[in-house]
């Protein structure tokens, strides 16, 4: 049964009710007054996403120019979106393509390769066999929840097997942190230093996986330490190094030690947490400076240095979309409305794969199509 809307949520509903669905779609049509209308809005959003990015065989195609590559992250997110949209046919196609093309035909025995596309010999296939744990934990979680919600034991069994493989291949006991999630199975440990990414660890997902193996609860605790270490002044970095005692910036890559296209997910995952979830209060407080930053600038920065707070560029509309649940959780009504108004004026581009993924997570949650329970269990229909 749906709980009454909070004063902040009612305020947002009233604001949104004055704007046409056509203007705001795919964003923030979560103001639907009935379950039937919410279901229609969710179905409409999902069908648009599917038509834009998902081939009939279940492959998710990114918008990276002429390369048309596929990332395991995209397969993971699409699998979750199909579940919350209750599209079993699409779910099966996405899972089958992922297993057959990224997992050597057996997702229970092989972690998904993170990158697939056209090789130099013009053949299509895996471009990098390394894994990406941000995708893998979402796939394991989604399979577990699909098995539970749809009463499909096969999905449950595969999800359990994959979660165990992640623990075996993508986790390590790091001095000072404990059992921790590495970004992938290869290449993130060097001379006693660990390269980590806070956005790879949505706490609700880790908490839910803890129901099948308590080791995941230890991973959730260490992930909170990684988020804290990655955000010394409340602004999170994309990538960070940890040497067993101290966190330090990673100067490599596009972000160059700053927070940007990866870190924006940290605020999104935090905002999606159940109000009774472990670590939620601590996490929202830790990340509060981002709300202040956005309020002062009017828009999220594209990149921001977590140590100096120097910014570069304007974050795309998808960043504003990703921040909405976090701003609601922070009770920042003014900043929330500010970002909603920005999105009315500058909607998320319909062909931008990554921005649309951020938007889908946010908009579907805000309209009440799904939520997470205190221990991370998925709830369809927005209960809790």
Topology diagram in text:
Layout: H1 7-17, H2 21-24, H3 35-53, E1 70-71, H4 72-84, H5 88-102, E2 115-118, E3 124-128, H6 133-149, H7 153-169, E4 171-174, E5 178-181, E6 189-190, E7 193-196, H8 203-209, H9 215-230, E8 240-242, E9 247-249, H10 264-272, H11 280-286, H12 288-297, E10 301-304, E11 311-314, H13 317-329, H14 333-345, H15 353-366, E12 370-372, E13 378-380
Antiparallel strand pairs: 1-2, 2-3, 4-5, 6-7, 7-8, 8-9, 10-11, 12-13
Helix pairs in contact: 3-15, 4-5, 4-6, 4-15, 6-7, 6-8, 8-9, 10-13, 13-14, 13-15
Give a short synopsis of this structure:
The protein is α+β, with helices and mostly antiparallel strands.
Structure description:
The structure is a single chain. The protein is of the alpha+beta class and 384 residues long. Among the domains are: 116 residues, Alpha/alpha barrel (Glycosyltransferase), CATH 1.50.10; 105 residues, no CATH class. Helix content is 48%, strand content 12%. It contains 15 helices and 13 strands. The strands form five sheets. It has a four-stranded antiparallel beta sheet with strand order 6-7-8-9, with helices on one face. A three-stranded antiparallel beta sheet has the order 1-2-3. A hairpin with a 6-residue loop joins strand 10 and strand 11. Helix 6 runs antiparallel to helix 7, helix 8 runs antiparallel to helix 9 and helix 13 packs antiparallel against helix 14. The longest helix is centred in the first third of the chain and has 19 residues. The radius of gyration is 20 Å and the shape is globular. The N terminus is likely disordered.
